[in-house]
Amino acid sequence: MALCAVLAGCAVGPSYVRPAPPPGADAPAFKESRMWVPAHPGVAAADGAWWRAYGDPQLDALVAQANQANQTLAQAQAQYRQAQALLQSARAAYFTTVGLSALGGRSRSITDGVVSLGNAHAWSLQAAWELDLWGAVRRGVEAAGDNAQVSAANLAAARLTVQASVVNNYLQLRLLDQQKEVYARTLEGYRKSLALTAARHRVGVATGSDVALARNTLATAQAQAVAVDLTRRQLEHALAVLVGQAPAAFTLAAQPPEMPLTALLPPTPAGLPAQLLQRRPDIAAAERQVAAANAQIGVARAAWFPNLTLSASGGYQGPNFGPWFLAPGRVWALGAALAGTLFDGGARSAQVQQARASFDAAAAHYRQTVLNGFQEVEDNLAALGDLARQRAAQEEAARAAHQSAEVFLAQYRAGTTPYLSVITAQAQALAADQAVLQLQASQFAASVALIKAIGGGWDASQLASVAHASPLDGDAAASATGGSSGK
């Protein structure tokens, strides 16, 4: 055991050091967060159910269904199990390989004209162990463990992406229900305006062009309402696929017109740039890829040194089964083999260079992933601030547009303004209502994107720990496969 521990501690290749993040990772706050008051408690719930912050029970049910039935998640989970199996396979190289063989036969031979019959029986037990003198196995296990953690983080990232897609599609669909209600009210008003204009035309007060304008306005609004309905059906189809169902088997009833939007825009989540390095699964996956690439450098460097293999075998050989365990029939062998490559035309040097280049590429990818994460947070923080101010101004514009339309319609009834002014005012009111709903949809989209950008409720501490250094740690195998996510 002592020899095993000593050999396990001898591993060539550089020890892993986490790459330094880009400048600004230790800033006291995000640049665009200065206007925000942190939410207490934070949007990201302790159990990771961040979507509950929107306060919609139907949305909660859809996300739960997607967590169970989404096929993209099923694929990522299978890939994680595959990575765990590869880790177990790599750890098997720590241990002795044992084999058993047995044979039996009967033969007929002729010697000097004498025919003889004979039996032959043999069995043997063989064992071989390649000592990990230079840490090639240890580094291989280290790389497999890091790759298992990469796969676990990728699974968390896939789950977060699916959850965000469900939340965003559902919220956009509900806002389309609101938009359909706006069109329903508008179309009712347009029909009344058409009836009024037609009546005035019959008594000679309005012109035929006024009637044509009224019909054109009504038909145009009807066509726009159909386009909204098509977009809603497409979002419903997308939700069906996200929750693991065929679109034909999934229906999401429209929200009743008298019911306001259930979902609420949650407060902005709190967070610091440095926390983002632990809260985003894609950043954690990129960092674990760097660790795996570092371990592969050790594997490549170990190829420069000879391998030492110890072997032993023992068994029985004789004409029958009777004296299997008697001394005359016993056979055994012990041996050791030391083998190394003297010349390979530069292949090992190239492998080391390739491993180092892979490490540099992984480190650059890690830093770029961090920068992308910072950008996503800053972009959505800025969007939420500007969209809130823009929506407030647009809501005031919508109120003014409706007042203007009512005034022009009253003046038209009194015969003091042409119908073209009414049509223009009504179109402006409809456009203002649409703009308000579109800004609200943009707010929800930015909110979902922001929570996703800070990792939702995920944290790198959820990754399962993996013991790399020694095969003597009894808990290593259990910790390597524990949990559904990795360190």
Keywords:
single chain; 57% helix; 487 residues; Outer membrane efflux proteins (OEP)
Description:
By secondary structure, this protein is α+β, with helices and mostly antiparallel strands. It has one domain (2-97, 135-308, 347-481): Outer membrane efflux proteins (OEP), CATH 1.20.1600.10. It has ten helices and four strands. It has a four-stranded antiparallel beta sheet, with no helix packed on it. A hairpin with a 2-residue loop joins strand 1 and strand 2. The longest helix is centred in the middle third of the chain and has 67 residues, at 136-202. The protein starts with a helix and ends in a 6-residue tail after the last helix. Mean pLDDT is 84; it is low at 35-46 and 469-487.
Write the layout of secondary structure elements.
Blueprint: H1 2-8, H2 57-69, H3 71-91, E1 97-111, E2 114-131, H4 136-202, H5 208-242, H6 273-279, H7 281-302, E3 307-318, E4 330-339, H8 347-413, H9 419-453, H10 476-481
Antiparallel strand pairs: 1-2, 2-3, 3-4
Helix pairs in contact: 2-4, 3-4, 4-5, 4-7, 4-9, 5-9, 7-8, 8-9
